[in-house]
Amino acid sequence: MRNFRLYYIYAAIIFVGLIYIYRLFQVQVIDDKYALIAEKISLRKQTVYPQRGLIFDRNDKLLVYNDPVYDLMVSVPIKLKGIDTLAFCKLLAIDNEKFDELLSRAKRRSYRGKSVFKKNISNVTYARIQERLYEFKGFFFEIRQDRNYKFNSSAHLLGYLGEVTKKDLSLQKEGYYEQGDFTGKKGVERFYEKQLRGLKGERYFYVDRTGVNKGSYKDGKLDYDPVDGKNISLSIDIDLQQYGEKLLDNKMGSVVAIEPKTGEILSLISSPFYNPANFNIQNRGKYYTRAINDPTKPIFNRAVSAPYPPGSTFKPIMALIGLEDKAISSSTHFNCNGQYRLGKRVIKCHFHPSYTSLKQSIASSCNTYYCHTFKNMMGSSKYKNSEEAYKSWRSYLTSFGLGSKLGTDISGEFKGWLKESSYYDKMHGKDQWNYSRIISLSFGQGELGLTPIQIANAVSIIANRGYYFTPHVIKKIEGMKSIPQQYLVKNYTAISQSNFNPVIQGMQEVTISGTASHIAIDNINIAGKTGTVQNPHGKNHSAYMAFAPVEDPKIAIAVVVEESGYGASWAAPIAHLMIEKYLMSDTLKESSRPNLEKRMMESDLIPYKYKSKIDKSLYGK
After folding, report:
1. How is residue 32 annotated by DSSP?
2. β-bridge mates for residue 257, sequence order
3. Fewer CB within 10 A of the end CB, N or C, for the chain?
4. 231: how many CB neighbours lie within 10 A of its CB?
5. Backbone angles phi, psi at 267, to 5 degrees
6. pTM (2 decimals)?
7. For 277-291, how does the pLDDT look when each residue is reduced to its tens digit (9 = 90+)?
8. Is residue 592 part of a domain?
9. In this structure, are residues 362 and 368 in contact, taking their beta carbons and an 8 Å threshold?
10. Is 94 helix (H, G, I), strand (E, B) or coil?
11. Which of the pair, 139 or 585, is modelled with greater confidence?
12. Contact yes or no for 116/71 (Cβ under 8 A)
């Protein structure tokens, strides 16, 4: 019996031994999983960043290009030993205390593996370290792409890059970004990030226990090259853009110019502006806080984000609504004795002939005419009450793209202010309000706010006699047959085409005999409308919108100059000079009105309360 027990024990030992032999054979010969794990401990992946796409203007002038950014990396910081710390610190121009701080931070980021030791090494420092890098085992460089600029111009439109945040990483779907990567943060850089960024490449290599590169892994079979980003061309004309910036210098405001037939943005300016190079990766730390603290808000993109009451520039739109709704006709006249009385309230008007036609009401900017028009519409028997009439009025405006974002390809767009009827129910009580409570809307004041790009789009609609293309800055994307489809679709308003002609005739009179006649341009037929916008926080804003030539519109423009007074004094001259520059650039080297141009460029209209706090270094002039 005991012999049988021994046989069982021997058999069990042999069986277990065979299992071990089989597993060892499987691990070492058949299954290379464990070999790969062992290799992984000594493998390093190096990201190879692509060239970011270049950005050009509509005439193929280079605007944005790439500059390398050198990040000094450290491998396995816990095992970093045996380097000449003093010599290394001297190369980096840091002291031992800073070295220990940077190394400690690198260890916290990645206790084993690679980690950033110092970001954004300068070209000079990179060259100095690179030639001696072999002396400092465990350190190596990763090269990324920062942006640089051919012109000190267009900062708000172009935007800038920044490191991805934890929120960016948590929200991404494709898993492209890693901590430390750059991404577009504002403007075109953000909107066209996927096209501009390209695809990263990778290199795999062996390292020893100190992190020193010992050669390519599997002869580079797992390596792959980066794919460069696509170049893009924008619709802006950089010459027109820079000219407009000179005119708007030392002023607070904005300019938006659009090609009506396509919706292409020819110029988009927000002032005060800043040098785009001050906000690239290498410089932003130095300038960002200063820009935030500047009271004139140079980072804020007024062109797409600032809602202003449109003032009298709204009157052509109000006229179109009145015509469409049958509140007035093209032959309607109203008497104006310099004011419109509403009980004890008096709304003042400008001096002009008392018996006022539609055309004259636009040319002379008559408030009374539009108060009557609004009253006729709000009190029309076709509506059962004021709320229903207001909803109809509002629906006309929404067909112009007002009260919502237009969908432009510039980040930060604001929808503006266009209140629902429920707003007035809360303010005055249900069924307790009528036209008299909201009469200021008729001439572009009250609870109404439009961004400059919305005003420019509205005047594009008038130029096109009833439709618009969503304003956009993209003109061409490398390798693509077309720009995004949403910018190729015609959006029609609720206004009949026939109603535009009498309004356009009135806008032509503005520059022939009306409020902007003193700055008419010879040989260019301009339809415009001045506006003096009431501002409860200071002086009135100067506003203007126009398009030209009337017979074949090529440019529509809106200008707002904050706290500067009459629309005819500042906004209109800036717009006319830009129209002249754009339409006559092939034949006109200098403005036909040098004195007007000089006055616009040299005038400082920044409110006195801000002057002592402005940081001129942001502008990089």
Report:
1. -
2. 267, 557
3. N
4. 19
5. -155, 140
6. 0.87
7. 988 887 877 888 888
8. no
9. no
10. coil
11. 139
12. yes
